[in-house]
Amino acid sequence: MTSIYQRVLGDEFRKLHPQIQRRFGFSSADNIASIGRGVMDKIWRGRFYTLPFLYIGTWRRIMFPETGENVPFTINNYAYIDSFGRETVTWVREFEMSRHRRFDATMIYSEQRKRIVDYLGSHQHLAVDIDLSVDEDGAMRLRSTKQRFYEGWVGFSFPMLFSGVADVREWYDDDREQFGIEVNVTNPVWGPLFGYRGHFDVTWLDCPPDNVPQHLKPLREERRE
């Protein structure tokens, strides 16, 4: 089984750095997990008026208001089949700051939309379309586009005035022999909201899909894409 990222990128996937291909190239059929541990060189936030966005994000583990430097963090990537039969990859980031913070996300390949859909937060309330690309250095680029809010019978396109556009770059540094990640979240009206940059090492674990830790899965799964 090819990974959800290979399905989107096709032949472009081979242009990724070999280590990035490995990071994004596994599926639930491979019975492995990728656990990254490292340090965020810097975690930042926007101006004072962005704080309401960030505090609201803490309710469902999407964003948080704290900032810092040299912050220990973990990225948990597990592949499994969700309750709707969809190939799913966890992107749970944990930050050890003045208090423990999490940023929860689960990604699927949407047959309906023919692209990656990223469910943000602990309850998958926000479904975000993701554009994938490979840059000239063989790094993976992920950029969020349209967003939809789902809760119970309610579903609507989420207004970007109240949300952010995420630009993510993940690469492999051959000199440091480490992975790198940079995330910048901006709002088209309010400007920069939140972001971080850091480096990490990866440990590969044997992990059948049925053994994915329950606390890293969403508390609620959303069928609508």
Structure characterization notes:
The structure is a single chain. This protein is mainly beta and 225 residues long. It has a single domain (4-216), classed as Lipocalin (Beta Barrel). Helix content is 9%, strand content 50%. The chain is built from 3 helices and 13 strands, in the order ααβαββββββββββββ. The protein has helices at residues 4-9, 18-24, 51-58, and strands at 32-45, 68-81, 87-90, 92-96, 100-103, 105-110, 115-120, 126-134, 140-151, 154-157, 165-173, 178-187, 191-206. Strands 1-2-3-6-7-8-9-11-12-13 form a 10-stranded antiparallel barrel. Strand 8 and strand 9 form a beta hairpin. The two termini are 22 Å apart. 36% of the residues are buried. The model has no long low-confidence stretch (mean pLDDT 92).
Class from secondary-structure proportions: mainly beta
Helix content: under 10%
How many helices? The count is: 3
Residue fraction in strands:
over 45%
Overall mean pLDDT stands at 92
**How would you describe the shape?**
globular
Low-confidence stretches: none
**Distance between the terminal alpha carbons, to the nearest Å?**
22 Å
Q: Major sheet: size, sense and barrel closure?
A: 10 strands, antiparallel, barrel
Report Rg: 17 Å
The helix-strand sequence is HHEHEEEEEEEEEEEE
Number of beta-strand segments? 13
Q: Order of strands across the biggest sheet? A: 1-2-3-6-7-8-9-11-12-13
Number of domains: 1
| CATH topology heading | Lipocalin
